[in-house]
Known about the structure:
Its cofactor is heme. With about 500 residues, the protein is of the alpha+beta class. The chain has helices spanning about 1-30, 60-70, 85-95, 110-115, 125-140, 145-165, 175-190, 200-215, 220-225, 230-235, 240-260, 270-280, 290-325, 325-340, 355-365, 400-405, 445-465, and strands at about 70-75, 80-85, 100-105, 375-380, 380-385, 385-390, 395-400, 465, 480, 485, 490-495. It has one domain: CATH 1.10.630.10. The strands form 4 sheets. Strands 1-2-7-4-3 form a 5-stranded mixed β-sheet. A two-stranded antiparallel sheet has the order 5-6.
Amino acid sequence: MLFKSLLDWLDMKWFLLFLCVFLLIWDYVKTKTTPNFPPGPRAFPFVGNVFYLDPLSPHKYLTKMAEVHGDVYSVRLGQQVFVMVTGFKMAREALMGQADNFVSRSPSAISDRVYAGKGLFLSNGLLWKKQRRFALATLRGLGVGKGSLERAIQEESKIIQDEVSHEKGEPFNPKQMFHNGVANIICAMVFGHRFEYTDQRFQRILHVVSETMYLQSTIWAMLYEIFPSLMKILPGKHNGIFHGFEEVSGYIREELEKHKKDRDPAAPRDYIDTFLDEMETTTEPPEAGFSEANLVLCIVDLLIAGTETTYTTLLWAVLFMIKFPDVQKRVQEEIDAVVGKSRLPSMADRSSLPYTDAVIHESQRMGNILPLGVPYMTVRDTTLGGYFIPKGSNVLFNLNSVLLDENEWKTPNSFDPENFLDADGKFVRKAAFLAFSAGKRVCLGEPLARMELFLFFTSLLQKFTFSVPEGEDPSLEPAGGGIVAPQPYKICAHTR
Ligand code: HEM
């Protein structure tokens, strides 16, 4: 009996030993790289360097590693090896010099489950190309860069001004107002209508979108990316990501059904109508994605990308204004001189407001809401910085390192609008301003975001002086998240 147990135990021991050796060999083969592949820090089996990353600021470790391994190096995160591109010189070479090589998104277990290759943000190939072209044309058709949309943003600015006035100079957190206002612009474009800020359904969707984005930056999402099959069956916060996407998609499907009932194909009102028209008339193959399932996921992307990014940037901009009251004063003086107080600022004023324009850009540079951009995958063999990067490699652009590149900015690490001004005080476009990234996958909403930031920001500073509530000292340290927001803060707004 004892002898048999010993044999069983030895069998089990050998089995476990064999399993460990097998898993180590499998792990080695799976992450083995080609000769002259960018070098990088030593990695643990299975998890790589993932536990060195601070989930709230992963770019910090990745920037530090570039000091040791150079502007092009590799790092293993879970089962995936990423080529890290650091600093403006290498980012420009890859995104602009070799734009055709850096065009696809890298695979991800979460996006595979949610998107299955559809949508705008994480899709690739023909579907991405056709959908991106359609989205750009449709957003233009719906007013981006034109007076009609400008008026809609001005009207929303007025509503935000009224909301701020209701606070009567008492301390308040502006987050929800900015969130509501920005979300209403993209909602008007995709659904054809805005929402009252008190609308419970609207608030619920905004909350779910934010929460879903946040969960994707947590350790739960990292674990799902490393062990998808296991995590799929385990309880945990990662499940909230999938529930969140499902809830938002469910709402969009309801809007879609309403549109199908009351649309007039001769007069499309919004993104949904325009897409439904395209579905009926398109000569594209099914792989181009003109289907209802894909429409829902494209709208999910537009809602996420079009809301979280822009309102977070506005939060940074107002935070910088209360931390740097002299800068705020100069912006107000410029707005007073050019626009006055009797009308709202318009896009035509922008070229006459160089200091204000510089402040908005500087807020984006220092706010730096997407420090690692969105992961890429090379579509053919390429070389960068003297290293060989084979087709199918994952690539991350450290946009944080570009926006703080010491070779490109007068004062890389401190908030200073002079970074965007010449000696005569004229606004200067800086090539290293890659807040919207660059190349073939450059932010699709950049023109819309620029309009919104300019009109919302200027209308706020035209009407109010913002200050830090007594006894408070808001931090400039980021709170982290998928889209990096400032830590919650309060302001006092005094009508000017
Ligand atoms: C301050 C505001 C914004 C910032 C800083 C920003 C930044 C970015 C960045 C860095 C990317 C990744 C580009 C790359 O892969 O290299 C991106 C992609 C994207 N953005 Fe924005 N964005 C903003 C606003 C918007 C808005 C308002 C929309 C809505 C229309 C939008 C829609 C998108 C979409 C759909 C993509 C994916 C493009 C593709 O993969 O082809 N963004 N954005």
